[in-house]
Amino acid sequence: MAKTSAVTPEQAKQIEAVLRQRSEVAADAWKLNLQLALRISDLLSVRYDDVQGRFLRLKEGKTGKQRELVLNTEAIKVLKRRRKTESRRCICLPVQE
């Protein structure tokens, strides 16, 4: 099995900068998931109704388990920024054809 390692804080900032040049949504998805560590399918299914103050309540798609996550300041900043542009889902990635 291939060895994997986490990105460093500096690498995370560099990746975010590159993503932000191409897509605000992709950069925000990256930044939010650095805070939440969700499966991509779970991240994309998060709705604003799932956010209750500083908590995110969700049902994991793969396991069906209910989870409650505490949102840190960075996650809340991203969610507030996304709320200005999205109506129901926190992260809506555009489909490219």
TrEMBL record:
Q: What Pfam families does the annotation carry?
A: Phage_integrase
GO MF assignments: DNA binding
- Which residues belong to any copy of the Tyr recombinase domain? 7-84
Q: Please name the SUPFAM superfamilies in this protein's record.
A: DNA breaking-rejoining enzymes
Keywords, comma-separated and alphabetical: DNA recombination
Q: What is this protein called?
A: Site-specific recombinase XerD
- Source organism per UniProt: Klebsiella pneumoniae subsp. ozaenae
Does the UniProt entry include the keyword Kinase?
A: no
Decide whether keyword Plastid is in the record: no
